[in-house]
Each structure stands twice: as structure tokens, then as C-alpha cells.
Amino acid sequence: MRAVAAFLALTGRDRMLLLEAVATVAAVRLALHLFAVDRLRAWAGQLKRGTRTVDRIVWAVSAASRWLPGTTCLGSALALQRLLSTEGHASELHIGVARSDEKFSAHAWLACEGRILIGEPEHDRFTRLVTWRVVEGPAPAAGKSGPA
After folding, report:
1. What is the edge-to-edge ordering of all strands in the sheet holding 103-112?
2. CA-CA distance, 83 to 46, in Å (whole number)?
3. Is residue 62 part of a domain?
4. 125 falls within a domain
5. Considering only CA atoms, which of 88, 65, 66, 87 is closest in space to residue 77?
6. Most exposed: 7, 92, 101, 144, by fewest CB within 10 Å?
7. Does a structural domain hold residue 148?
């Protein structure tokens, strides 16, 4: 009941942002099972213009990720990259791997404006494999890697 009261205490703009974040995190979780990663990258990187601040978007995605149990670091990072890009904020999604005691693990984290927004506590122990950047200009079409 406190969650409902807290939600209702938010401004209308923050309620809409939080609902959008929940929908985006849920969509990413489903899409990770249904679509190729290139398609998700293209979707998450559609840079547009918006007015929401980076900090409010991070708040909303972090809250949505906590609210939807089982959300992975990759799901949170892709959802955050999507919402940041739709508001005109460039970002970098990093994926790294680590091995300890014969166990292999992977981690995703997202950086924007020179700071890590999601995945910060663990990122130092992972070796970066790939970085997906959203920068000014149109996002590449899914499956396209550039001129041949």
C-alpha cells in the first residue's frame, strides 16, 4: 500500500516517466528472448530530442528494474539506453566478462556524460568486450554494419 501512496505522491510527469520505464524494462526483458541483439541495439539507439534529465530517467529505470524481479543488468542497461536516447542523451552500453574460481560471468553497465549510471559497483572486475554507443546522428539499421 505504501508503494501506491508513494506513486500517487509523484508529480504527473514523474508518474508517466515511471510507467514508461516499467513498460520499457518489461519490453526489453521480453525482447531479449525474442529478437536478435542487433535489432535491440538499433531500437535502443534511436536518438531523438526530449526534455527529461538524465537523473530522472536513471531514477525511473532503477525503480522499474527493482519493481520487476529478475531484471538483469543487461535488461536495465538496454532500457536505460533506450529512454536516454529518446530524450536526446548519448550513452555507452558496455558488456564485459570475468572469470573467478572456474566460473564465468558477464556484466553490463551504462555510461552517460562521463559517469556510470547503472552497473557501477561491479564493473571494475570485468574485462570489457563490447561497447554500444548512441551518438548524435541516425542510428544504424538493424543488421547493417556500414559500407561494404
Report:
1. 115-118, 103-112, 91-100, 127-134
2. 9
3. yes
4. yes
5. 65
6. 101
7. no
